[in-house]
Amino acid sequence: xxxxxxxxxxxxxxxxxxxxxxxxxxxxxxxxxxxxxxxxxxxxxxxxxxxxxxxxxxxxxxxxxxxxxxxxxxxxxxxxxxxxxxxxxxxxxxxxxxxxxxxxxxxxxxxxxxxxxxxxxxxxxxxxxxxxxxxxxxxxxxxxxxxxxxxxxxxxxxxxxxxxxxxxxxxxxxxxxxxxxxxxxxxxxxxxxxxxxxxxxxxxxxxxxxxxxxxxxxxxxxxxxxxxxxxxxxxxxxxxxxxxxxxxxxxxxxxxxxxxxxxxxxxxxxxxxxxxxxxxxxxxxxxxxxxxxxxxxxxxxxxxxxxxxxxxxxxxxxxxxxxxxxxxxxxxxxxxxxxxxxxxxxxxxxxxxxxxxxxxxxxxxxxxxxxxxxxxxxxxxxxxxxxxxxxxxxxxxxxxxxxxxxxxxxxxxxxxxxxxxxxxxx
RNA sequence: GGUGAGAUGGGUGAGUGGCUGAAACCAACAGUUUGCUAAACUGUCGUACGGGUAACUGUACCGCGGGUUCGAAUCCCGCUCUCACCGCCA
Length: 426
Known about the structure:
By secondary structure, the chain is α+β, with helices and mostly antiparallel strands. The chain has helices spanning about 5-10, 10-20, 25-65, 70-105, 145-155, 160-165, 175-195, 205-210, 240, 300-315, 365-370, 395-405, 415-420, and strands spanning about 125-130, 155, 170, 195-200, 205, 225, 230-235, 250, 255-265, 285-295, 320-325, 340-345, 350-360, 370-375, 380, 385-390, 405, 410, 425.
């Protein structure tokens, strides 16, 4: 959620930014609507506060009168307050109306893209920030997509998952299960070596947490919801981990707060069907190691680059061909100010698959979370939040299986061997 | 699931209707003293939203939401959470 003060003070910048998100002139009217509502809110508050002030004074006076035994005067004062109280009620009613309108508009306004974000309408306009420098791997015609490799080596089973739960819930077995565990441990070790604190968070969150990171109201339909207990299954570790710092005021010297967490992620993902979602390309439950950082506003973009470097390192250690896209305004997430997507090349499907998304949310999430810090002058200021996948497993597994297939089996990258305990998956 | 106790500022903890945005102590911060450290002393020490160039000032908040009252941390109702015991259980 943006702050109204930002809309006021940097209105031109906000307009330019939202245009990158393809806001029309008509859409942009919302900014003025919000400012007008906020002006109105201030007026009402002033008048309400003044009336409350009088009411407080009269109440104190009545107390004195009663103490002094001046009953008549006290009764007179009481009747004086009666009409004032009616006024106050009306003002409070107005205040509620204006505040909820204001809140609704603000909640539905997306974050302002950073200056560096390329313009564009859709995923086709994303900027290739870093391409794969070599020729893309080519496999012989006999090469199999990962869902066929899964059958061949009995490493994961989607039909079985359908029997137990429903479509999109894979069952990993044998060396496939071991590979999952190896990757999780590898990713966690890599992150903790970089100074990220390891967290094992709850896999369900309450509404306040879902709201804090912006899943509600924007992406509510994407989450599984347990009505009986009013809880949401997490779509990413970002939600519980970032919410550790909801309603927290940090000291400046605590920055950067770096956390990592492995969790399964649950996504309803209603929509697309067909070849693009076959196998592990899109599932309802997958494993992911997430990195979350809280940083000083002055340094958050440096941190974003560090996080990109970290994820790049993972891809390189896994010897997977990848590229980095800087998402254009039209393709960015609602809460993000700048997002870089990592895509792995899946040689048998001959497609790029998204495996990581690294974003700086600036103060957008912090505003909802009330995540602040005290600056040098002891004033509180919103912190910046960032996060990224490091990494999401399902599609990494898909690419790894496809790209590394040989007649003898699937070659495990050297760095993973200590984790898997085998060099060839067969 | 049942019963009982509780929820106050960074911490401990007073406070049963007006003098309490909140005592006291601890912690923290700034200063004085000191050869240094410690101790002692003095001062500062919640958040948010407003008004004002500023000094300053208004309002709200004592788990959350309602209610009673001229006036609520304090009384009433509902909820949530924590702790203890019982039951069940990985």
